Amino acid sequence: MIHIVRLCRRLWPLIGAAALAFLTFTHFSTSSLTALAAPPEQGQDLAVITEPTSNAVVSGVVRITGSSDHPAFQFYIIEYAPEPANNQWQAIGGLGNQPVIDGQLAVWNTSVVPDGSYTLRLRTVRQDGNYTEFFATQIVVSNSQATPTPTAEVTEEPTEEAGEEATPELQIVIPTETPTPLPPTPTIVIEQPVVDTPTPRPVETSSPLEDPAENSSFIPTVSGFSVVPLRDACLYGGLLMLSVFVLFGFLSALRAFFKDMRDRQNRK
Fold this sequence. Notes:
five-stranded mixed sheet
């Protein structure tokens, strides 16, 4: 009985240390995965168009959704241009004076533009005039439809001579396709807001300029990511570590037990 008590006293520190290490590792892994899967927060450098996506086919009135934000946010603007886009950009609606997170950025009426392939551009403009931009390319506008045409008609006309049978006369109407006319493209005039600072020159780059004075963080959004496999892996790893600690503790206690028994036999 005394040997069992001694063995338990020697194993308790090892079991406690293993359990504490397992709980700490599991808590740290779960916290990291939760932070990784968090949605974007307000105040980050964002310029994203989620709908419509590249290579989409649209018609009629289209809702443009996405995110536009920055710690030094001034406004955002959405423009379109026929491909290839050679500085023929036209604005969709007015300027957005408020940041948008996963919401509607603008509404695009595609019935006023010719059918074809277009590029959408979103710019998030900062207080210093620099901007972050995003492109959605190869968006196909398809609004035209063929006008239905009548089918061929057959009319019968009787002959004027008496005593002869009337011979029907065929009159064929050839159907023609009449394309639906498109309304003229309106001219959109954009009024720039009055800013106290002078208007800077736009930078013809697709990437934003770095501002060393800023200190912003960007947490990516992980879509379609499951934490179940990682959680199971953490649990299995913790159980394996605990088993190894218990095994080493048991072997140490068993060694001490045999050593004690040998010392007693030598004393006798």
